[in-house]
Write a structure and sequence with these properties.
By secondary structure, this protein is an alpha/beta fold. It has 15 helices and 15 strands. Strands 8, 9, 10, 11, 12, 13, 14 and 15 form an eight-stranded antiparallel β-sheet that branches. A five-stranded parallel β-sheet has the order 2-1-3-4-5, with helices on both faces. Strand 12 and strand 13 form a beta hairpin. The longest helix has 23 residues.
């Protein structure tokens, strides 16, 4: 598999040819090749020269680019779609004495990309850098961050070896390039389909009249794009996604994945069905009031919002509920598969460091009255008006809608007398 690699190092001797190259810009493979084959150019850092020589000699496996300063990389990134698989990041630049900029740029690269990052340093402060790499601040990047000492004889070979190992073990690193490429194809297909529309026609077709204007929101655009985006991705050939079955698995990692899959923690102003909220005085709740009523909340709902209290499994109520379930032998295969009047929400991210599992008991439905704002009954319900409560996350589809349907069925669904034991046994035998 071909990988893209970006080297950020101020020892690349591009400044010796200011009439041809600008050291503030991206240095592509042609520039680097010129610097390597020109014998008149002296490389101050032989290690970074060796790295470039290897990458260019193996150009069928590597797409290489470079910058002489992390600030130049960020300037370029602001104006271009650019996401390399690997960074080789020199630690020492001409920052002000005592500056933490190298650390800040490193954090931004890791936080804003899926890339694997090698800190490449021969400084006498390598022990301090190593302590930083293993600090709490960088702990969440531990699987993508490596420190390589330039003074080691085999440091270039070590980087290549580490990349090969990561390709076999890290999902984002192994599949990231394909995902980005295919996502770009999908977005381009959508834009191609709507390219015949003017801005006026497009906004007029999805917006709503407001005084003498037609106004469209981000959500209106997203509602149009997302279904087509999913459809476009489904029509693209992906590299096979399969692994061998294993008896042992890391449940913490699996909970993290499901948390990311089921919940969205994007900040929003307006309250929505499927939001999980936290009460200042304690407790978590699931909003079940209809979205179509939220836009004119006091007119449509009379100021009442409906919520389901979420119970921790080890809470007093949770323990009592578990006692009632002992003989039911419940099986939870999804949020709406339970044959009893409750379900579970796993791995809710109540903070950046904690995932909690909650019981959802539909029949514990409550309503809270919210005072009408000065803007009148036709105002939407926003979180600044929902006093004493704050948003935690939103449950996303395809989980939100089945969960709400399950809850409503348990609150208002029709009951029916059971068959007698004899008829139940007879029917079971007929099926068998």
């Amino acid at each position: 598999m071909k990988h893209s690699i970006c080297c950020i190092d101020d020892k690349i001797p591009v400044s010796k040819y200011p009439e041809f190259f600008k050291e503030t810009e991206a240095l592509n493979e042609q520039v680097l090749r010129f610097l390597l084959i020109n014998e008149q150019i002296g490389w101050e850092d032989s290690v970074i020269k060796s790295l470039f020589a290897f990458l260019i000699d193996n150009s069928s496996d590597w797409s290489v680019s470079a910058f002489t300063h992390p600030a130049f990389y960020y300037n370029y990134r602001e104006e271009n779609v650019y996401s390399p698989d690997v960074f080789v990041y020199d630690w020492d630049y001409n920052f002000a004495p005592g500056s933490a900029e190298s650390e800040e740029y490193l954090y931004k690269i890791l936080d804003e990309s899926y890339s694997m990052v090698f800190i490449f340093s021969g400084a006498d402060t390598i022990d301090d850098i190593n302590s930083l790499v293993h600090s709490e601040k960088f702990s969440k990047f531990a699987d993508r961050l490596e420190l390589v000492n330039k003074n080691e004889d085999d440091c270039v070979d070590l980087i290549i070896k580490k990349i090969g190992e990561k390709e076999k073990s890290n999902f984002a690193f192994s599949y990231g390039h394909d995902i980005i490429q295919n996502s770009n194809k999908a977005i381009n297909k959508i834009l191609s389909e709507i390219s015949q529309l003017s801005i006026h026609d497009f906004i007029a077709s999805i917006g709503i009249p407001v005084n003498d204007k037609i106004v469209a929101s981000n959500k209106d655009f997203i509602d149009i794009v997302i279904p087509r985006y999913k459809s476009s991705l489904n029509n693209i050939e992906w590299k096979e996604l399969s692994v061998d079955k294993q008896k042992k698995f890391n449940i913490d990692s699996i909970r993290q994945i499901w948390s990311y899959r089921m919940y969205d923690n994007s900040p929003t102003d307006e309250v929505s069905m499927g939001d999980i909220v936290k009460k200042e005085k304690g407790g978590y709740f699931l909003i079940v009031s209809s979205d179509c009523h939220m836009a004119r909340f006091w007119q449509k709902n009379g100021g009442y919002i409906s919520m389901i209290p979420l119970q921790r499994i080890n809470s007093v109520l949770g323990k009592n509920q578990r006692k009632l379930l002992v003989n039911s032998k419940p099986h939870f295969s999804s949020v709406n598969s339970s044959q009893i009047p409750m379900t579970l929400l796993p791995a809710v991210p109540v903070s950046s460091a904690e995932l909690r599992d909650f019981m959802v008991l539909p029949k514990s439905l409550i309503s809270v009255k919210i005072n009408e704002p000065t803007t009148g009954k036709k105002s939407p319900l926003r979180y600044d008006l929902f006093k004493g409560y704050s948003k935690v996350v939103s449950i996303v589809d395809p989980y939100k809608s089945p969960l709400i349907h399950f809850i409503m069925n348990n609150i208002t669904g029709y009951g029916c007398p059971d068959f007698s034991d004899e008829i139940q046994e007879y029917l079971l035998n007929r099926i068998k």
